Amino acid sequence: MKTVVVASQKGGAGKTTTAMNMAVAASQDGLRVAMVDLDPQRSLRGWWEARDAEWPQMPDTDPAPEQVKAALPALAKHFDILVIDTPPAAPEWLTTVMAEADLVLIPVRPSPHDLRAVGATLRCARGRIRLRVPAVPTPRAKVTDEAARVLAQYGKLAPVNAAMRVIYAETAATGQGVTEASDPKAAGEARELWDYVKGLLNG
């Protein structure tokens, strides 16, 4: 089982949006996907509870952060991918959870505030980062390219930007992924990101 942690100290960066849409895209790719929600706001679980589909799946209750490592062997018997959503903060336990990841995704909006917040998340990762998502979602603007240049100094950036689209809010309310909805551009962005993540996980 491969484990993907989605993390960002900055709220509103697109962390839960990334987690849910990546999990749906991976499920549509034929993988058995599980999700765990470590964010006290429980937005990912709320989305999943509104969902009417077999995959992705979630445990009846989310483990406490300190229980994640112990829960992995049992999950690995039933799932191919585990996606872990985390809070918009850098709690002490985040380093421990990231240490169990095969891949850490850090969504970042192209704003000075978001770029400043990246540092705390990177410090928690301590070398576990294999991918940064420069903008999910983000407006298409010159600032996006400028943010990408700043983030590139930290390592690898995903070659995928997601635009600000109403469909993200709509699907968050209905329990869908954008690859199951009616916006082909958003669906294409989500599939492109998953294809890139899949390549990293299998590489």
UniProtKB/TrEMBL annotation:
Superkingdom of source: Bacteria
Positions of the CobQ/CobB/MinD/ParA nucleotide binding domain: 4-53
Pfam families recorded: CbiA
SUPFAM superfamilies: P-loop containing nucleoside triphosphate hydrolases (SSF52540)
Name of the protein in question: ParA family protein
